[in-house]
Design a protein that fits this description.
It is a single chain. By secondary structure, this protein is an alpha+beta fold. It contains one helix and two strands; from the N terminus they run ββα. Strands 1-2 form a two-stranded antiparallel sheet. A hairpin with a 5-residue loop joins strand 1 (4-8) and strand 2 (14-19). The radius of gyration is 22 Å and the shape is rod-shaped.
C-alpha cells in the first residue's frame, strides 16, 4: 500500500495529495487492472470473431 500525504503550504493550508514512497496507490492499481481487463476482452472478442469467420467460410 502506498502512503499519501499533504504538505503544509506557506499560508498554513494543506496542498494536494502526493505519494510518500514510490509505487502505485490502490486506485492506480485498480485502474491498471481495468485497462488490462478491457484489453483482454477486446483481444478475446477479436479471436472469437476470427474463428467464427474461418468456420463459416
Amino acid at each position: 500500500m502506498t502512503l499519501l500525504r499533504r504538505k503544509r503550504l506557506p499560508d498554513g493550508s494543506f496542498g494536494e495529495l502526493e505519494k510518500v514512497f514510490e509505487g502505485e496507490t490502490d486506485a492506480e492499481k485498480v485502474e491498471q487492472l481495468k485497462r488490462d481487463l478491457d484489453d483482454a476482452i477486446i483481444e478475446l472478442s477479436l479471436l472469437i470473431a476470427m474463428q467464427q469467420k474461418e468456420g463459416g467460410a
